[in-house]
Fold these 2 entries.
Entry 1:
Amino acid sequence: AVLKIVSKPYGKIELSLNNVLLPEEKLLNTPSKVDGLDLDTETDLRILGCELIQTAGILLKLPQVAMATGQVLFQRFYYSKSFVRHPMETTAMSCVCLASKIEEAPRRIRDVINVFHHIRQVRAQKPISPMVLDQHYINLKTQVIKAERRVLKELGFCVHVKHPHKIIVMYLQVLGFEKHNGLMQLS
Amino acid sequence: MRIIDEQKPLSRASRRQSMSEIGFGRMETYTKLDKLGQGTYATVFKGKSRLTDNLVALKEIRLEHEEGAPCTAIREVSLLKELRHANIVTLHDIVHTERSLTLVFEYLDKDLKQYMDDRGNMLSMNNVKLADFGLARAKSVPTKTYSNEVVTLWYRPPDVLLGSTEYSTQIDMWGVGCIFFEMACGRPLFPGSTVDEELCLIFRVLGCPETPLPVASVSDTLLSRAPRLHQDAISLLTCFLAYEAKARVSASDGMRHIYFKSLGPEVHLLPDVASIFSVPGIQLSPDPSISKSSKNRRLSMLL
């Protein structure tokens, strides 16, 4: 089952550091909004970015925790920078690369680019053809490395995310629900 | 639900803005002096901050390879940023450019070996500090297993040497024991150069894991190798060197061991960022085992 962790960007990280909760005015006045992007489009971009990270993660055979981390990094980044100035897809790719390193299942940038290329073709219902290793590819790779650096800088290297999933499972075990598959999977 | 930190007058963004205006995060702020050492992924330089005129250590990580920031660097920075302690090296600044990632640390003038060698003629109040967190890891609810290729061979515990990958904080307590011994007598306890040799050296002192030697005989062996250690110290050392990881003393219990009693109860109330030498009565003094006047020593720093 594919977990969708999208609509509650900050709901799931309050356990990590003590400064991760954003004040209301920051949640309402995002950098994208300041740049003139309407809220619906921003929400769509956030959801799309997280779905891309999830799908790419599955194709790259990453552990689920890496996708969750990548999505948190992605969401946090766009409370600091705007979708208008920083393209969603490049950031999503860099978040996959970064999360794979943080969660100790590193993937090569080349593989990440290939997988995103594949997803793009499937979504557009185009015939599947492999990525050509031309100047465009080289530029894209440089962009991903740059985006990774930008994400690290914006988040001040605070990239260790404590996810609630394991803790929910632990609570369910304590409460004696460990046999309840539905609840366990939901966590 | 939403919490606004009222203690900070500046927002994070405006604080960062003003830090960057002063010169943080830029290479021009630091003057590179001598090269101090070179590791597999980084070079360390002595440097000077133009902001404060203080000496700093510049750990320069090259980013020439094609995969962005190395995960060791990400790990080291993200963990060090959260640590504030009198005995842990302080990370002052990070300079991240296209070609390199430079970590700016406070400058420590000696490593532990040099520090111990000089102890005779400098009874100063310097703190020992931990540095290099390239292989450190954040602790959380354990689920996944790790590699067993961890920890310098000399300080690697037998369970990991024999292939265990289900380790936790207890693996470090074995290493603490080894370094404790090394500080006391100036020689490493188990200086093996291969895994097999390392295990042999351990077995010679502790016996085989199936037929471990009795505590008394282990104590005698350790005592004969490190005559400067007293009975209490040997007792603490054997608490660290337990075969079974679960049986090893934890860091917090270790600090309550009788060996540290001479430091007095105040040391347990010390805030993280305070030096142990801020406790009245604690100072370095020449090796107490030479004068044998162990009754009135208030120091167990083995110096």
Note: The longest strand of chain B covers residues 30-38.
Entry 2:
Amino acid sequence: MSEDQIKKMEAERSRSLEAEFEARIARDEKIEPKDWMPEKYRQTHIRQISQHAHSEIVGMLPEGNWITRAPSLRRKVALLAKVQDEAGHGLYLYSACETLGISRDELYEQLHSGKAKYSSIFNYPTVTWADIGAIGWLVDGAAIINQVPLCNTSFGPYARAMVRVCKEESFHQRQGYEIMLKLCEGTAEQKELAQDALNRWWWPSLMMFGPTDAESTHTEQSMKWKLKRKTNDELRQQFIDQTVPQAEILGLTIPDPDLKWNEERQSYDFGEINWDEFWQVVKGHGPMNKERMKARVGAWERGEWVRDAAMAHAEKQQERKAKEAV
Amino acid sequence: MKNKNLYNYILGIADNSLILGQRLGELCGHGPSLETDIACTNMSLDLLGQVRSYYQYAAKIAGDGRTEDDIAMLRKESEYFNVLLVEQPNTDFGYTMARQFLFDVYHFLMLTELEKSTDLNLSAIAKKSIKEVSYHKRFSSDWINRLGDGTEESHSRIQTAINDLWTYTDELFHQTEADEAMVAEGVGVDVTKLKGAYYEEVNSVLEEATLSVPESKYFQKGGKQGIHTEHMGYLLAELQYMQRTYPNMEW
Amino acid sequence: MSNKKNWPLWEVFVRSKNGLEHRHFGSLHAADAEMALENARDVYTRRNEGVSIWVVESKHITASNPEHNGELFEPAKDKVYRHPTFYDLPDDVKHM
């Protein structure tokens, strides 16, 4: 056979494998790590799962900023447990990603070098205690909307990790809302803190759903692979519709003069999102991008001698065991 | 206060857990690996859980309307009775583990005795805490061993941390007035009696980790009397920030 | 990428209560078995999920290749006589 013929046969084989692969996903079958998969599927999943994992561990930083200053012991343990959960979720997701043949260290390197992205929301600062409430309520609320459909995504390890994540995260949003509620029932000063936090976190939360559908590049493919069930705009609308009544219960005002109930659509109309700000932060020029990366890289570098020591000890132990066995 | 000695005795125990829990809390998100980060946060959560039980009990004894949070966050520095050891900063992971280990061995011995207290509240708290602390001790001892045996760098770092923190170990076995009164009543633990077992265990772990036992005989004290190191004020500034900035509010 | 040795990957199996089997819970990194057990405890049983943990270094697991699924698993599909419903018995026969 000529080289051309071989190439042609290979291409055909890969086409039929791919057709079978897509058909399996369409039948709601799960894909497991050792199954054949198109290279694009593997790469897309590495990108999305690792971005998700990075978001969890970078997300520890803004909230971790208030652990030592939490206003009561009850709030302190709840916040610690929540930030710890995020470490756990990062870990589950890195593990899922590792089944695709990339190591956690390589993924860290992508994060630390700025090659990998993470959720832009974490590039905003937490300047008051109320921000911890706002993050729990809005950011976790938005995250849940994004994440619940992923429990059914096509890649088995990702779906399983997400089931665990969603189960554990159910307390996070409640915690945040409870913080806000307490502030709003408190003194005028406390309520002001709550309103100020909502003012600063509302728009970045809406941006968490990503660019508008017209601008979004990955949507169609992601839908097919069940990495996405609804479009960015649909999810954003769902978030707004469910959050506005929650703000009313708190007695807070959503900082959007154009926000209005649309009887015909049975949904809220809302104002223009500042996409320039969105892209500025995505490109690394948000208020905290540099600090967040510095903190991550710093922790990793300061931990190097510790990780090396543990490895060296493990190797010595094995050698000693081997010697004993002789 | 009718039972001032018991109140102070409880604070003497609880403040150690509060301050160490706070120190460990600083590390959340900054650990050498995700797994280690999660483990240190677990220890922090255990300690803060214990703290709440102790302070809730202390608040009941005080009977003046103060809550656990008032006790935790609204005292002056001189009114915290924790040992100097636990307030030492997270200089590096070596110091964090050395501090943890030097405290855990004591903590475990103390709780084992406290479980026998005639005060049923304290006995119950001790009984629950002892399982947590038993794990802490295991975790920190394992790390002492790893770092001591690991690389040249880790050996030297953990040895330095042990040497530096050694000076704070003797204070663990000092008795305060409240201690003496509570020991006499069968409520408190006679910490002076724990010293032998403590150094025996600490030394054996250090030796296994190929570390040398510091020979210095000069020790620092003062925490139990409310005279702290310079680190303490900053730790309290963070711990108390909200309660001080926004007095008399609920969160 | 440095060629340094990083903590290897371990698979974690947890028995959620006595009477149940150990189930695969996930994976983690640890330098040695002892640490893998401790990490598994700290990572996977934070919400009281377990009473017993197994850890095994991932590289020690031998897995079947899905490409062989045909020869491995399909031959068992038509051996219906291994299932009780294959056998016809009169309805009067109870408890069998």
Note: The interface with chain C takes residues 33-36, 38-39, 42, 135, 138-139, 142, 146 of chain B (CB under 8 Å).
